[in-house]
Structure formats: C-alpha cells, structure tokens
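pls read this stuff:
=====
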Amino acid sequence: MDIRQAARAAKTASIRLAACDPQIKQTALEAVATALDAEREKIVSANRQDLRISADNDLAPPLLKRLKFDDAKIDEVIAGIKSLINLPEPVCVTQSAIELDEGLELYRVSSPIGVIGVVFESRPDALVQISTLCLKSGNAVLLKGGSEAANTNRILADVIQKASEKAAIPAGWLQLLETREDVGAMLRLDELIDLIIPRGSNDFVRYIMENSSIPVLGHADGICHVYVDRDADLDMAIRIAVDSKCQYVAVCNAAETLLVHEHVAAEFLPALQEALSAREVEIRGCGKTREFIDVTSASEKDWQTEYLDLIVSVKVVDSLSAAVEHINTYGSGHTDAIVTTNRRSAAIFMNLVDSGNVFWNASTRFSDGFRYGLGAEVGISTNKIHARGPVGLEGLLIYKWKLLGKGQTVSLYADGSRQFTHKILKKDFNLI
C-alpha cells in the first residue's frame, strides 16, 4: 500500500471512528494493553535487534537510551493505557449551549480532528502513546518513527492494529510509514490529512512547516531552565536542579541551563558542583560562574543548545528580570522553573516567562502528559494555538457547532419579526 492509499484508508476510517461508541474504544484500549503484555517477548526481541544495529552504527548514547524498550518500558506504556481508559470520554462533550431563540438551540460540541500524521523520534514508547491517544480521541493516525526503531515500531504497530481492529475499531485507522520518502509524500496530502505533528529538532520542525500546507502542531527543541532566585531554599534548589538535569537526561523536559542569582551564587554553586559531579555531569559556566567554581567556559552556543546528555550550562544573573530575559531570549518555550520562597517573585516569573509550562519549586521533569493526568501525550506543543504544553486528549480535539431548530428561517430575524434571546443554557447536547 502506497502512502496515498494508506492516507485514504485512514481518512475513511476516521469518519467512522469519530462516531464510534465510547465503550468500543474502551474495549479496544483494554485489548491493546493485554496484547502488548502478551507479546512482550517478541517486542523486546525486536528492540534488542534495533539496539544492536544502532550500536554498530555508533548511535549516540543518549539516543540509544531513548531507543531502549524493555520490560520496564512495556509496563510503563501499559500503565499509560490504563490511565487513558480511566479518563472521561472526550468526544461529543458539550462545551457551551445557547438558546438563540425559543426552540432554536446552539451547541458547541467536542469532535476529533480527523487524520493526524505524526513524525517522531527514536522512542518506541511514543508510538504506543500517540496511537492510543488518537484511538481514545477518535482520530485516525499515520505514524513515522525513527529508522533506528524500525523493527520495534513494526511489531508495536502490528500488535496495536490487530488488537484494536479485532475489538471493532474501523480497519485502517492506524498506518505505519517507514521511509523518508513517505514523509515527503505525506506533506503533500492536504486533502486527506488534517494535522501534522512533528517531534524533533527546530530545523526538522521548520522543514515540515515550510514544505506543507497542512496545519502543523510544532514540538521542537526542549531548552528548559531552572532559575535559582535570591530567596531560594538552597537545599531545595539542589534537589530540583539535580532532578531536572539528571533524572532522565535524554528527554525534552530535562533542564539544559541553570540560572543563579548572584546573591546566592557563592554558597549555591559549590554545592551544585558537588552534587552534579557525583552524577558525572559536565558544567559549562559563564565568567561569573567560573569565579566561584572551576568549570569549562560556556559559549553563546551553549545557551542555545539542547544537550540531551550529562552536560549543563550555568549562568549567574543579577536579577529576576535578567533571568526572565535570558529565558525568553534563548529558551524554546517548553518548560522553565523558578526556585524561590518569595511568592511575588514566583508570580512575576510565571507571568512573564513565555513558555507553555512554568513551574514554582518543582522539577522541569513534571512537564509530561502522563504526570499531568492527560493519559500520556502526543508531544509537547511550543506553539501558541489551540494546544500548548503536553498535548493529550484535549489537544487532539476540535469542536462542531450543532444547531437544533424547529423550522426557523433567518428572514424572520432579518425583518425584525423575531428577536434573538442569546440565553445561556445549562444542558448538554443529546439527540438520543
């Protein structure tokens, strides 16, 4: 099946999936979780093959870590599916109801987007998260993962496809793409695909945007910051900085730059260096940072770099305003945190930092769809459109306006015979 046929099959399936009985979707998700558990030996074996090939091809260690899909990862994705099952049905939810006139009622009701094309990095767990979120939200999906995970992605897609279709989900709702040529062709199918979600570098996302007329929900670099304020609890700041950087370095919500107020730099930086050195983290510091600790000199490029590795850049700033300015200049709009005991400073930071996720006294690693209770995520949106931050079910939905009348015509309102009431209704849309 070529890419156009795959997209057409997905389009056909999406129309039926949008109106699918919620219980059928729930049963299908349960079937997918059961199938993943039953086929874990085959899945892990396929992943080991991908890991061997990638290691032979000198894939960078952080990317190898992303690629690994073992029993623990399978347990994680199954837990994510079960969390998704426990979420309320998202489709056909009444968002607003207005009486335009007696017997003329207008409802805004949530609905699926349609067909979504997702191009994602070498993380097999992303395939499971994306596909199950699309299923629950009633969307068909075309998936293109990294070539490094080809064998793992192939068996995961096969397991999910068979289990869901056996549970009465429309055939063709999930399509796996495997070549770069498929991606190029997909970008031209604006009559069949409703949304593209690319996950990767800024250059990659920019390429997608410049080469397609299909709307794009962009998730590019994760250049995340932790700012240690002059009023910070320094023990807390160490814990948060270490967790933000080290808990899992190869992900987009790991901190890449630490900003430290000059008032606490002399006390904080040596303690930070000790904590990070114990975890083999390389520190690259600005000139002021190097006055307090012996580290590699940071360059302008470091402030713009997503390391995805055991490297962090550190800059000493003279004010909260300077920290905000640095983040808004060099950050990617992903996730940024402040550590402070000063509520006013926290409020200023959270209001002025231009990011999808802003935290007070918490690790940047909390920026995650599963941790937010969204049932995993399709990705993190750094765009300023209908979905921002972790994109879960709500980000995969739009809405329809549904008008219920009793034979009314506009001419009666145009000539003044009837007047609109525009009365807010406290009721849900229901025809059955």
User: Anything to note?
Assistant: Residues 224-366 form a domain with the Aldehyde Dehydrogenase; Chain A, domain 2 fold (CATH 3.40.309.10). The mean pLDDT is 93. Residues 5 and 293 are 60 Å apart (CA to CA).
